[in-house]
Amino acid sequence: MNPTRLKALIRKEIYHLVRDYRSLYLAFAIPLILIILFGYALSLDVDNVETVVVDYDKSELSRDFISKLDASPYFHVAGNLVRTKEAIDYLDRDTAAVAIIIPPDFMKNIQADRDAPLQILIEGSDPNFAGIIRGYLTAFTEQYNQKLLLSFLNRQGMEKISPPVDGRIRIWFNEDLESRNFIIPGIIAIIIMIVGALLTSLIIAREYENGTMETIKSLPVKAGELLLGKAFPYFFIGLTDVLIAMLLGQLLFGVVMKGNFFLMIIATSLYLAVALSLGLFISTVTKSQLIANQVAILTTYLPSVLLSNFVFPIVNMPKILQYITYIVPARYYIDILGGIYLRNTGFSHLWPSMAVLMFIFTLLTSLNYLLLKKEGL
Amino acid sequence: MTLSNSNSIFVENLEKKFGDFTAVNKITFSVKKGEIFGFLGANGSGKSTTIRMLCGIITPTSGTGSVAGHDIVTEPEEIKHSIGYMSQKFSLYEDLTPYENLRFYLGVYSVPPSEWEERIDWVLNITRLREEKNRLTKELPPGRPQRLPLGCSLLHKPDVLFLDEPTSGVDPITRQHFWNFIQQLAREGITVFVTTHYMDEARFCQRIVMINEGSIVASGSPAEIIAAACPGKPQADLNDAFITLMTRTDN
């Protein structure tokens, strides 16, 4: 590595970047768009589920049941309907996800100590969503039953009674089960991949397309210097993007990193290096900006969203896809981010994932180095 | 054959194969220091492959050679430092100004920064681009950008200059200017290795080698080549000789 040469290469790359303002726009617009889009739109939380009720009983108890349901953060009673048919219409049109039908004699049955059946219909086209709602409703009715039971026993003169097994559940790390707490770190992983790999996938191909690669080959430029010179400006753009994303995550969504900032920067730099080396490798192999762009989207953006544990849990995937996820760098970074952002884990737990990223980076860079070497650099 | 000191370029049995295809077939020639040497051939005759081997961009399949005293097989790095290369396609950065392009070359050739301004000054003079030095290359008036690559390839004061079809697409006046300048460089001791399609230009060369399908078909001064290729035709010029030699593929 010759410092004068490296400096000249870096300076040239910065000129390209500054003059090609489209790349620069992309480099800073991408994190903004992604974090706002994913942050607001991609909520996996289930709350304020639209619910319609048909109350044939119209008793004090049925009204109490409905108002308690409406008061819970998970349900919103959108309509009190007269006939079951109307409730089914709501489900058909997908304007409500839950319909509750309270039969006549609901209160009378309870007071007479008989079974008091209640019909609950859930719109199940999204099974995940429906499953979560079913869980909420089961818990809600159980709680309601318990309250009825207790007030009955109290009225009978029994002072205090509590159920024998009392499982006390506490959620760790993401106490309020807010999905944005893991979506925001996930977006950071995607931003790095897009900015790092998509933009760099163009820059060696561009030299080939413009014929300047021929010049570079005739100059005493070494393969390693070319790669480092190309990656250098994008590395800092990538890091800046991460800082923007972290800041927006905190300001807009209240997602605060719990772990060590220094460790975050180290791990992020490593992952960024993987993204850059992947983009440059694609660029050297394809030698065409158009193809490089397509390949980069296919091999970086899509796997980072689909196969990284970001939105879709890897454990639920078919075995063959699970094996494929092992070569997706985002998978390891999202694992690291979960550790740093949510669990405040240290290096001692995160090093295996970091080692894999290091390995992928070394592999891609060595391959690219050899390819360029063979080309005459 | 010994390597004479006055030989700036020297190759022996130089061969390059791409798979089964022989691009350059065991050619042998030498170029003296300060000589303007023409390397002529039709498209696909092996000209560019030879230049790329001499510039240390690709390694020969077999054969030996040296450029500016450096072995073309084992010392490509040293060769790149002592030569200037101007490829047939315009290959500078159009989104950089001439000044920035020159600084890029100086940096890449690791010329000591204390000499930069003086060298840039010199090149801006010979390319007559002083007025435009801070305008983006792609926005320069037509014809101007083409002056820049030659300047870039001379910035580090190379011993040997390789010009791959330097005047294609250049108007006659600029071409005349260009050749005057090349002759001046040669007088200063720079070896000029040039390929061209224009036979009227080839007469500026002191010596010529013609290559066809990877093999040398003629060599010597322009006059010698015409005499050998077109015997008994005193009116013949280099063009006739070229066509005769390039179409005679069977022997």
Largest sheet of chain B: 6 strands, mixed
By DSSP (H or I, 4+ residues per run), the number of helices of chain A equals 14
| Secondary-structure-derived class of chain A | alpha/beta
CA-based gyration radius of chain A: 29 Å
Count of helices of chain B? Answer: 9
State the helicity of chain B in percent bands. 25-40%
Domains of chain A, number: 2
Shape of chain B: globular
Mean pLDDT value of chain B: 89
Unreliable spans of chain A: none
Number of strands of chain A: 4
Please state the structural category of chain B.
alpha/beta
Radius of gyration of chain B equals 19 Å
Physical arrangement of strands within the biggest beta sheet of chain A = 2-1-3-4
Strand segment tally of chain B: 10
The first-to-last residue Cα distance of chain A is 13 Å
Report how far apart the termini of chain B are: 27 Å
Largest interface, by Cβ-Cβ below 8 angstroms: which chains and how many residues each?
A: A-B, 23 and 32 residues
Order of helices and strands of chain A: HHEHEHEHEHHHHHHHHH
Provide the helix percentage of chain A: 55-70%
Strand arrangement within the widest β-sheet of chain B reads: 6-7-8-3-9-10
Q: Quick recap of the structure?
A:
Chain A is of the alpha/beta class. Helix content of chain A is 68%, strand content 6%. Chain A has 14 helices and four strands.
What is the secondary structure topology, with strand pairs?
The complex is a heterodimer of chains A (about 375) and B (about 250).
Chain A: H1 3-19, H2 21-41, E1 49-55, H3 60-71, E2 75-81, H4 84-92, E3 98-102, H5 106-111, E4 119-122, H6 127-155, H7 180-210, H8 212-218, H9 223-253, H10 261-286, H11 289-306, H12 319-324, H13 329-343, H14 347-375
Parallel strand pairs in A: 1-2, 1-3
Antiparallel strand pairs in A: 3-4
Helix pairs in contact in A: 1-9, 2-7, 2-9, 7-9, 7-10, 7-11, 7-13, 9-10, 10-11, 10-13, 10-14, 13-14
Chain B: E1 7-18, E2 21-32, E3 36-40, H1 47-54, E4 62-67, E5 70-71, H2 76-82, E6 83-86, H3 98-108, H4 116-127, H5 148-154, E7 160-164, H6 172-187, E8 191-195, H7 199-202, E9 207-212, E10 215-220, H8 222-229, H9 238-247
Parallel strand pairs in B: 3-8, 3-9, 6-7, 7-8
Antiparallel strand pairs in B: 1-2, 1-4, 4-5, 9-10
Helix pairs in contact in B: 3-5, 4-5, 8-9
